[in-house]
Amino acid sequence: xxxxxxxxxxxxxxxxxxxxxxxxxxALTLSAPVGQVAQHLDELVSEYKGRGLHIxxxxxxxxxxxxxxxxxxxxxxxxxxxxxxxxxAALEVLAIIFYKKPVxxxxxxxxRGVNSSEVLRQLMLRGLVSEVGRKEALGxxxxxxxxxxxxxxFGVQKESDIPDLASLVATTSDATE
Amino acid sequence: MYEVKTQNFEGPLDxxxxxxGDKKLEVSAVSISSVVSQYxxxxxxxxxxxxxxxxxxxxxxxxxxVLLKSRMLLPREPEAADEVNLEDRLKEYEKFNKAAGYxxxxxxxxxxxxxxxxxxKYELSSTFVPPKGLDMDKLLKIFKDVLxxxxxxxxxxxxKIKFEKINVEAKHAEIKAVILAKRKLSFSxxxxxxKTRLEVVVTFLAILEMIKAGTIRVLQSEVFDDIxxxxxxxxxx
Lengths: 177, 237
What we know:
The complex is a heterodimer.
Chain A: H1 3-17, E1 21-22, H2 23-30, H3 34-47, E2 53-58, E3 61-66, H4 71-77, H5 88-100, H6 105-112, H7 117-125, E4 129-134, E5 142-146, H8 148-154, H9 165-176
Antiparallel strand pairs in A: 1-3, 2-3, 4-5
Helix pairs in contact in A: 1-3, 2-3, 5-7
Chain B: H1 12-20, H2 32-46, H3 52-73, H4 86-108, H5 136-149, H6 168-182, E1 184-186, H7 187-191, H8 197-213, E2 216-219, E3 228-231
Antiparallel strand pairs in B: 1-3, 2-3
């Protein structure tokens, strides 16, 4: 299989999957090494710049979604509200989970000093947060992490497009001083 | 002193952050008393409408604030190593508070990617196929049988918890009046006014407050000797 054939096949698989696909699954189907598939994916990602579709990445998972710049029109087409409707509390919980993942509900509540189960439930219903396992501690509490859909919600292509906590705190305090 | 009128906060730490506001994060450097009293004021307002689970977190932070305040009234004792400092907690919280603000901006840009709409390939028709011979009377009888098998609610015995109520402010005023009237008296004399242990505690706290405010002076000639209290205020006629 040539490189172009491989890239074309990956593109097709991502399209029909319509959900996050693990790189190993792609490699297995193509009978190709993971490293090679990763390289082809990277090329595809950059080739999609300026197109109506984007390939987003979270860890080893890839997904084909609509381009973020078309958000206004696509949301109109889908009859979906684009306005951010997350409460301050929800954004705070999201921030804690995003930067400290995986976390337990207790971790979140200790940090905020307030019960957060209802907010957490809403975020899970929205698909922005999901359960990722259990902590090997007393009571085996559920561990939560943010999802790939959070990246789509924020309109970023990969997690590293979101600045890390330290630089975020540094820039915002610079701005206020 | 500035006031916080906004009721717009997400939990106790968020409230504290807003109260401290532009005074920066050095909780101990801030006039802690003014922050504590503002915090407690809002808490008493909150008590009227918030539910208990929500209040618990606010109370926890309030007690930590009071601990911080009492540390400043009394000679310092070394903090336990495992003690989580309110200041550190607030600093940690502030980071995520800021991150939430950044996330809000991100969402505000209204750049979003959408995934394909998943439409089911076929839908199951929702038709009801009743078994043969079922009529309304039978259905009613079945429904009644089901109702009968439901467990009935049994009444739980009620038990009253005795709760001692002391109006702290009133008690303070009372003690102050006694001291001002007598000019000088011993602590043990003052304690005769207290009927319960809780009242003794409140009396002691009131004394500490007054020492801090400078309205009284206390003298003790030896350890475990009786403490004498005298007012520093001039007699008012």
